[in-house]
Structure formats: structure tokens, C-alpha cells
Design goal:
Elements lengths: L8 E4 L10 H15 L3 E3 L8 E4 L15 H8 L4 E6 L3 H4 L5 H11 L2 E4 L2 H9 L8 E3 L23 E7 L8 H10 L9 E7 L11 E3 L4 H9 L3 E4 L8 H8 L4 E4 L4 H5 L3 E4 L4 H10 L1 H8 L6 H32 L11 E2 L5 E2 L1
Parallel strand pairs: 1-2, 1-3, 3-4, 4-5, 5-6, 7-8, 7-10, 8-9, 10-11, 11-12
Antiparallel strand pairs: 13-14
Helix pairs in contact: 1-12
Length: 359
């Protein structure tokens, strides 16, 4: 399909946020930067005459959402040629309760010309929850800014030096893996693990939790976070039921192999660059990860997917949908332009009282 390379007018329903925040804010900045670099107009508001709306957040208008998804309903009534793409990166399963997120996703899908899932786990989950089988979908994985997160080329590790293991979370939500980090902290309280591994937890801990045998530091972002990650040899995530997690994506971008809980989309993102575990085999898998470090580190250093590739996939989808809408509109206009009202008088057949037709 040929596409008219006129600049698109794109709106993303996310507020501009600086400083430490969840991964969604980073994703929006990366998309916005790439779209603008390609010559497109990007706004965070519902402005007249948009070509495309990307519903990046499905929450009601608040700290991070510039306009709520339901505002698109009335907007589409005024501008029916505007296409809508819904991005899904959350679910109630990660919240351990019905917070209305799953219902919001399904409702937003009804508004959308296409739904983007950040993982196969997320797509399959919502198909199970009743997503319309006919709904157009795409999987676009999350990528991070490789200019901000990159490997420390000078970092090496081999025993008897202690392996420096790290995790980082902006959120203090318990489903980020605090039980796993507590388990590791317990192991580090005595030999042999106390002689083999050091663990650093960056970010917020849930209220009431402590890691006495580990190093805990406050939330970091920007260059400070990158340099702290680069100081470590490997990464640990215990996150549960996440559609995708920026924390381990940033870690792999820094060349850190990942020991990951097999839950949600963790394996989709981390399997090529680490070792998976279940709660019942954590210690055994930790030893395997320790022993296979050189292989896993080499794999992590091959990681190449980034935010620019992610944004290019989003833009290709938006361009395709807009092109299809324009082509459809053009066909309708051409059909109308060729249609002519019948000339008068129209000859009709008359019916006699006995039911026979006459000319």
C-alpha cells in the first residue's frame, strides 16, 4: 500500500513527567522523540484534526494521564477519520485484585482500530478474558534508550571475587518480587552464599520489609542509575504477572544477564539472556546462574533491540492504519462522485385492476 508521506498529527494520552517514574513515562518520551524526528507532529492533548491517537495509558485522567480513554468516544464522533491505537501493558493479575484494569483494556479495545500488546503473555491473557477474536492486534515489545543504558565494556568477573547482583524498582508494590529478594537476603546471611554473592536493591521497599544482609539504596534515574547498574555483574527479578518490565530491559541493555522468575512476560524478554527459576528451585537455579555466568554475560552483550526500533514499529502501524483509512475514505468519495440521481421522468410499469402489468 502506498502511503502519502504528509506529516501525521499524533496524540499520546500521557502527561510530561520528569524525574523517577514508572517505565511508561520513559516509553512515551522515546516514542515522542522518534515520531518528531521523523517529521510528525506530536501532542499530549486532544486537538482538532488528529490523524492518530495512541492510548498509552488506560487509567482515568490523573497524575500520568493527559486525557482519559472515554474522552475519545465523543472525539471520534466529531472526527471519525482519526484512527485509534490502544497499548496494553498492564493487567489485574499483577495487582492481585480486580482493580478494573482488565475491564478498561477490553473497553478501550472496542474504541481501537488496533490493539498493541507488549508481550504474547499479555495478548493471550486478554484473549482468555474475552477480547474480540476479530480485533486487530500487534505485539510490539518494549525497548529502552541505548544511549542511556549501555554495557560497561571494562567490567569483568570471575571467582573468587563476589558476584554483584542487583535489582531496581521505582514502585514499592509487593508483586515486584520482594519475597524473592527476601529469600536471597536470607541466603546471604551465611556461607556459602555470603562468600559468593553481594546483592543491591535499588528503589523503594514495601512498607515493613527489610533486607539486612543486602545493600539498599533509594530510587535512582538517569546517569546515576546507569552507572549503578554498570557496577554490577548480573541482575535479578522476581516480578510477577507483568506484561513487560522496564527494569530488566534496562539491565540487559547494560549487558547484565538476568536470573528471572518464570512469570508473566519475564521469559519472553529474559530467556535469551539468563536463567529462569520457580519459587521451589530458586537456590538450585541461583547456583546454575552463578556457574554459567560467562555464557549468560556473552549472550546479554548481544542484546540489540532498543527504543528506536520499538518506536519505528509503532509508527509503521500508525502509518498503515492512517493510509488504510484515507484509502477507504477516498474510495467512498469516488463512489459518491460517480453516483448520479436518475433522470426524470422515470418510466414505470402500471398495474391494471386485474393485476396485469401494462407498459
Amino acid at each position: 500500500m502506498k502511503f502519502d508521506r504528509m506529516n501525521l498529527r499524533i496524540s499520546i494520552n500521557a502527561k510530561q513527567i520528569e524525574g523517577p517514574w514508572g517505565g511508561g513515562a520513559h516509553s512515551v518520551r522515546n516514542l515522542e522523540r522518534y515520531f518528531r524526528a521523523q517529521g510528525h507532529y506530536v501532542t499530549r492533548n486532544l486537538e482538532p484534526g488528529l490523524d492518530a491517537i495512541l492510548l498509552h495509558s488506560l487509567r482515568a485522567q490523573g497524575d500520568s494521564t493527559s486525557f482519559a480513554p472515554e474522552a475519545v468516544v465523543s472525539y471520534r464522533q466529531r472526527y471519525p477519520n482519526t484512527i485509534v491505537v490502544t497499548r496494553v501493558n498492564t493487567c489485574d493479575e499483577h495487582q492481585t485484585a480486580d482493580r478494573g484494569l482488565n475491564r478498561a483494556v477490553l473497553r478501550a479495545a472496542e474504541l481501537a482500530d488496533a490493539v498493541v500488546f507488549v508481550s504474547e503473555f499479555s495478548r493471550d491473557l486478554f484473549r482468555g478474558h474475552g477480547l474480540n477474536p476479530a480485533q486487530r492486534t500487534a505485539i510490539i515489545r518494549t525497548g529502552t534508550d541505548r544511549g542511556a543504558f549501555y554495557p560497561n565494556a571494562n567490567l569483568t568477573w570471575s571467582p573468587p571475587e563476589k558476584m554483584r547482583l542487583v535489582t531496581h524498582h521505582w514502585s514499592s508494590w509487593v508483586m515486584k518480587g520482594i519475597d524473592v529478594y527476601e529469600r536471597l537476603d536470607f541466603l546471604l546471611g551465611e556461607a556459602p552464599w555470603s562468600d559468593l554473592i553481594e546483592f543491591t536493591h535499588i528503589g523503594k521497599l514495601p512498607l515493613g520489609f527489610q533486607l539486612p544482609n543486602s545493600r539498599t539504596v533509594p530510587v535512582m534515574f538517569g546517569d546515576e542509575l546507569t552507572h549503578e547498574l554498570q557496577r554490577h555483574h548480573a541482575y535479578l527479578t522476581g516480578a510477577r504477572h507483568e506484561a513487560a518490565g522496564n527494569h530488566y530491559i534496562e539491565a540487559v541493555a547494560c549487558g547484565l544477564p538476568v536470573l528471572y522468575l518464570e512469570s508473566g512476560a519475564n521469559a519472553e524478554y529474559c530467556a535469551p539472556f539468563g536463567v529462569g527459576f520457580h519459587p521451589g528451585n530458586f537456590e538450585r537455579k541461583l547456583k546454575q546462574f552463578y556457574d554459567e555466568y560467562a555464557t549468560q554475560r556473552a549472550a546479554a552483550l548481544t542484546y540489540s533491540y532498543d527504543a528506536e526500533q520499538m518506536a519505528a514499529e509503532y509508527l509503521k502501524l500508525l502509518e498503515t492504519l492512517v493510509a488504510e483509512r484515507r484509502e477507504s475514505t477516498s474510495r467512498e468519495k469516488n463512489a459518491l462522485s460517480r453516483w448520479r440521481w436518475p433522470a426524470w421522468p422515470i418510466r414505470s410499469k402500471r398495474v391494471t385492476t386485474d393485476g396485469h402489468r401494462q407498459e
